Amino acid sequence: MRFDLSDLKLFLHVLEAGSITAGGNRAHLSLASASARLKNMEDALGVALLLRDRRGVQPTPAGIALGHHARCVMQQIECMRGELGEYARGLKGHVRLLCNTAALSEFLPQALARFLAAQPNIDIDLEERLSHEIVPAVLDGSADLGIISDAADPAGLQLYPFHDDRLVVVTGKAHPLAGLRRVAFADTLAHDFVGLAGDAALNAYLAGHAAQAGRRLRYRVRLRSFDAICRMAESGVGIAIVPETSARRCRRAMAIRCVPLSDAWAVRRLLLCVRDANALPAHARQLLDHLRADGPGKAG
């Protein structure tokens, strides 16, 4: 049985993506090449690693075991890079960081820019996820660090304060909600919305709370940035729900109103989470320390 690191990386990508096509894309392999590599791994072991169907793939018990060991191997490689990086120039360290929409759009860009400028031998793989998806990924070693809201169950992870995030309703000045001091989320659902395009974590978060109220959000248009959806709200196309930091920034250049949501879940504390800070590779620990010192959530 001989697997190289590329095989193990591909297998982990396929597990995380839930499909051979998407996993192959992450590994920069065609579907044919990725399928051939996975088949060779199964032939070498003499056991199926993946259950394949029209919806994608699921690991067999043997695949789950291989995934566990593959993550351990990749973590050891990163630890080696971190320790040898003190001696060898040009040896790159990689950190995988998962975060929610607010962290990705508002709090991380400047913090990561400063970190990467000061650490040219460290690369960051950044991905947006829902908080409840981030926790198991950090627990099983799929990610080194996560940023979650305090509404998620941390499941024994080590937590460090990062930033506070409040969701607000953005409207044009003539909108019926514009004059309110605060509004309940349920009372916004009778209105048209503008929102983020794609599978942004904030979309799923809001959709979940709408479902609890027995309603659905009615989107007229979806765009790729908070600035763009605030501009649409300014024009009266619909209302938007965005982080307060985004709304305040946009309000300096746009004729919009910001109405706080009265729901308790709209005020979120963002937390850094790791499985074991002391066991992190050196470069991942450097990023953790940098982010802990970044904002109002400075660790004591």
Overview in brief:
This protein is of the alpha/beta class and 300 residues long. 43% of the residues lie in helices and 23% in strands. The longest helix is centred in the first third of the chain and has 24 residues.
Describe the structure.
The chain is α/β, with parallel strands linked by helices and 300 residues long. It folds into three domains: 5-82, Arc Repressor Mutant, subunit A, CATH 1.10.10; 90-163 and 268-292, D-Maltodextrin-Binding Protein, domain 2, CATH 3.40.190; 165-265, D-Maltodextrin-Binding Protein, domain 2 (3-Layer(aba) Sandwich). The protein has eleven helices and eleven strands. The chain has helices at residues 5-17, 20-26, 31-45, 61-84, 101-118, 131-139, 185-188, 201-212, 226-234, 244-251, 282-292; strands spanning 50-53, 56-59, 93-99, 122-128, 145-149, 158-172, 192-196, 218-223, 240-243, 256-260, 267-274. α1 packs across α2 (20-26). It starts with a helix and ends in an 8-residue tail after the last helix.
List the helices and strands and how they pair.
Layout: H1 5-17, H2 20-26, H3 31-45, E1 50-53, E2 56-59, H4 61-84, E3 93-99, H5 101-118, E4 122-128, H6 131-139, E5 145-149, E6 158-172, H7 185-188, E7 192-196, H8 201-212, E8 218-223, H9 226-234, E9 240-243, H10 244-251, E10 256-260, E11 267-274, H11 282-292
Parallel strand pairs: 3-4, 3-5, 7-8
Antiparallel strand pairs: 1-2, 5-11, 6-9, 6-10, 6-11
